[in-house]
């Protein structure tokens, strides 16, 4: 069952950000994702240590042709440091067709209202969430914030809002 973002509503202007990609080290911003596209899909996850999160990242990778056909830039934002994310990617020999952005201090997670405090700052995570952002006005056209680690936005619902 989805719940609302703690800070954002549909129609709000999406907060800007610039984070490093765990795989390439490149700096990726919202502008980067929106450049030359109709919109951007931001997917928030707890971290590479989460098997449910990794599963959805794989599923999202399988859906990339459909998302690209809809004109969407895609990025996953994980509430984890780049060092830990990079190590997990190397251990699993994983690669994804979209940036995996490191939000170790949870600043972007908090701005998007999907922060899930557990009690100790180093263990704070993100609720699984998806935000579809329109390129023309940078407004949020679709938002899904999962109430549990198992709740995910259906790609078909995201694509329906992207058209």
Features:
163 residues, 6 helices, alpha+beta, six-stranded mixed beta sheet, two-stranded antiparallel sheet, single chain
Task: Outline the secondary-structure elements.
Elements: E1 2-3, E2 18-20, E3 27-29, H1 30-34, E4 39-45, H2 51-62, H3 64-69, E5 72-78, H4 82-92, E6 100-102, H5 107-111, E7 115-116, E8 125-126, E9 129-134, E10 140-146, H6 155-162
Parallel strand pairs: 4-5, 5-6
Antiparallel strand pairs: 1-10, 2-3, 4-9, 7-8, 9-10
The geometry reads as globular
Average per-residue pLDDT, rounded, comes to 87
Oligomer: single chain
Strand content: 25-35%
Record field, number of beta strands: 10
Summary of the model, kept short:
It is built from 6 helices and 10 strands; from the N terminus they run E-E-E-H-E-H-H-E-H-E-H-E-E-E-E-H. With 163 residues, it is an alpha+beta fold.
Structural notes for this entry:
The protein is an alpha+beta fold and 163 residues long. Helix content is 29%, strand content 26%. The protein has six helices and ten strands, in the order βββαβααβαβαββββα. The chain has helices at residues 30-34, 51-62, 64-69, 82-92, 107-111, 155-162, and strands spanning 2-3, 18-20, 27-29, 39-45, 72-78, 100-102, 115-116, 125-126, 129-134, 140-146. A six-stranded mixed sheet has the order 1-10-9-4-5-6. A two-stranded antiparallel sheet has the order 2-3. The longest helix has 12 residues, at 51-62. The two termini are 24 Å apart.
